Amino acid sequence: MPPIAARVAEPPRVAVRGRPGAGCRTVAHALNGAGLTVVSSAFSASVADVQLYVLAEALKPEDRDAIAAVRDARQPLVIVLNKADLSGFGGAGPMAAAQTRCAHFSALVGLPVVPMIGLLAAAAFDFLDETCWLALRALAAHPEGLTCLDGSFDGFLAAELTVSMPMRLRLLEALDLFGIALGVAAVRRGAGPAEVRALLHRASGVDAVVAQAMAARGPARYRRILEAVTALEAMAVADERIARCLSGDNMVLARMSAALDAVSALHLEPEDIATDDMAALLRRAVRWQYHRRSRGGTAARVDAACGADIVRGSLRLWSRAGGSVESGELG
Length: 331
Fold this sequence. Notes:
Elements: H1 2-8, E1 13-18, H2 24-33, E2 37-39, H3 44-47, E3 50-56, H4 61-72, E4 77-82, H5 94-109, E5 113-115, H6 118-126, H7 130-141, H8 153-158, H9 165-188, H10 193-204, H11 206-216, H12 218-236, H13 240-247, H14 249-265, H15 278-295, H16 301-320
Parallel strand pairs: 1-2, 1-3, 3-4, 4-5
Helix pairs in contact: 1-12, 2-6, 6-9, 6-10, 7-9, 9-10, 12-13, 12-14, 14-16, 15-16
């Protein structure tokens, strides 16, 4: 039984793609560091659980076409605005500006868009070698070490600093201006390597991206649960305890929860229903029963199974809340 549980609990397999120059490799590296399994986009249609599309600065026609193609194929999709630090340093900072831009892009494509700074996430997982750390400390100790970062690459490279030109270029490659500024400011506050690493991790936005990918894996996780149930049903022939577990309330409600996660990832179930809201539970059961019948033979197997589990679980909760066939509520 442990191997069955381990299979269900596997992290999602993510395919990362986007326009050249969007930073797909950096994002993929960061997601690997965060514990996700990144697969080759060349084989993503059959291997990946989640498609992750990377934007950078602008939403171009080729981006919209690629996003539409994934949606048309009904594949779980996460959209990331990488290089969020390039959204502007004014006001509340680049991530706040990136959130505004993400909201605009989201309105255009009809899906959430999440900001991320891939370089910072990658740096947080790999961190910096001793020479880079010493360079950050040298910048923090210099009077102009922070003000020279409030402009352009050229301004940073031309500033009169004790840090060598090759080392400045290395820092720019690893952290960009925003990341260097974060590191220098943190060192000035007395932060050590571990604290700077944690700061880069938080500022990168990678946790929000991982959360989106975990939520989007609903259909793949549901398929694995169906496979696990099939394996358990075979074992139940010789084990009455497993048979009772498979037919009990906990299993019915767990399957409904997984099915709701699956359809939510495909943006098919916007309604969040309380477990004691009899009318809403009954409406959901009727709606998904209709959905199953109306799609007929064209429905994918996972759709049909999802519908059945949502209907069964909703009616089980409805019955628990006091609903009954005798009351006439089923019409």
